[in-house]
Amino acid sequence: MELIDYQNVEIRQREETVLRNVNLRIHNGDFVYLLGKVGSGKSTLMKTFYAELPIYSGDATFLGYDLSTITLAQIPYLRRKIGVVFQDFQLLPDRSVEDNLLFVLQATGWKDRQVMLNHAHDMLAQVGMADKGYKMPYHLSGGEQQRVVIARALLNTPDVILADEPTGNLDQQTGEDIMNLLYGISQAGMTVIMSTHNPRWPEKYPGRMLYFSNGEISEANPNDKQSL
Fold first, then answer.
1. Which one of 133, 158, 206, 220 has the fewest CB atoms closer than 10 angstroms to its CB?
2. pTM score, two decimals?
3. 102-152 pLDDT, tens digit each
4. Cα–Cα distances in Å, from 178 out to 63, 132, 197, 224?
5. Dist CA 47 CA 127 (whole Å)
6. Which sign does the torsion angle of CA 121, 128, 92, 71 carry?
């Protein structure tokens, strides 16, 4: 099933064109790498997916929403279909791991506390953090915090996971643990789109590679090391 369809899209920030001639189709279950130098537009493209940045021109559909005409009232419903994994975690530092997840559930309309607790515990177990719910974020390692972030991203059973440099602040082995987790989620049928600068990941975890250069996006050849 086609989840993302961009045709002849132009994206601007502060009146400057960041990406042009974007033609992109992404399907259910795809594992997609966004590759390119810092400032090449990878994060900019992701921001259009969850309607933080508008589409300047062209046709853009994401999860059934027309991003050219989406209303402010529709944006929260779109975002509930997306799980976001940040490089810098963005966990609430004054709340436990469990309460970080409960906060998201409450914000997205869940009501029954026991149901929420059970669901939060299930998500933590899924990412190997079943016994860490009571801990504060600052008591966790970087890899453990990122696992919590992935659990948070999965809370509302999203259609797509967007991962912006999810291993950028982690050592190699911890990064590999996170990649195993994300790739497993994709293999189970969920679409994962991630930006990365690590050339090992596309080699070890095959997926589609979209290369950002000179304001345009092209489908990269898996054997093209220049893409990395």
1. 206
2. 0.86
3. 999 988 889 899 999 999 999 999 888 989 999 999 999 988 998 999 999
4. 25, 17, 15, 25
5. 26
6. negative
